[in-house]
Amino acid sequence: MAEKITLVINSAFGLTLAALAAAAARYVFRREVLGRPDLWFAAAGAALTAALGMLWGALGRPPLSNQYESLLTLLWFIFPLTFYFHRR
User: Fold this and answer.
1) In this structure, are residues 56 and 78 in contact, taking their beta carbons and an 8 Å threshold?
2) d(CA 59, CA 41)
3) What is the pLDDT of residue 71?
4) DSSP H or E run through 29
5) 36, 11 in Cβ contact below 8 A?
6) Is residue 35 within 8 Å of residue 25, measured between CB atoms?
7) CB neighbours of residue 53 within 10 Å
8) CB neighbour list of residue 73: distance below 8 Å, 6 or more residues apart
9) What is the mean pLDDT of each run of 10 residues along the chain (88 residues)?
10) Which of 1, 21, 47, 75 is the most buried (most CB within 10 A)?
11) Distance from first CA to last CA of the chain, Å, rounded?
């Protein structure tokens, strides 16, 4: 189970990097070169939500007991802010 959780967390990280690359390319080239950044961020947020749900189920408690789990949860709360500021 731990390998699956790690795979989903790494996928969320990769999707976040893709979203940042798409946003940077959109800023530099003034058009969507790598796709829409908000869709990449949505996919990353969904992957992070799945990872936190899997982690919560495996641990039997909310994932907030150490720095790693707390930062993952903090990142989960930051994703809606990215949508807000991206839309502005």
Assistant:
1) no
2) 26
3) 94
4) helix 2-29
5) no
6) no
7) 13
8) 52, 62, 63, 64
9) 92 92 91 86 91 95 94 90 77
10) 47
11) 39
Number of Cβ within a 10 Å radius of residue 40: 21
Cβ-contact 72, 45 below 8 angstroms: no
- The owner of tokens 């080239």 is 29
Q: Which DSSP string do the residues of 37-84 spell out, in sequence order? A: HHHHHHHHHHHHHHHHHHHHHHHTS-S-SSHHHHHHHHHHHHHHHHHH
Give dist(CA 32, CA 34) in Å, integer: 6
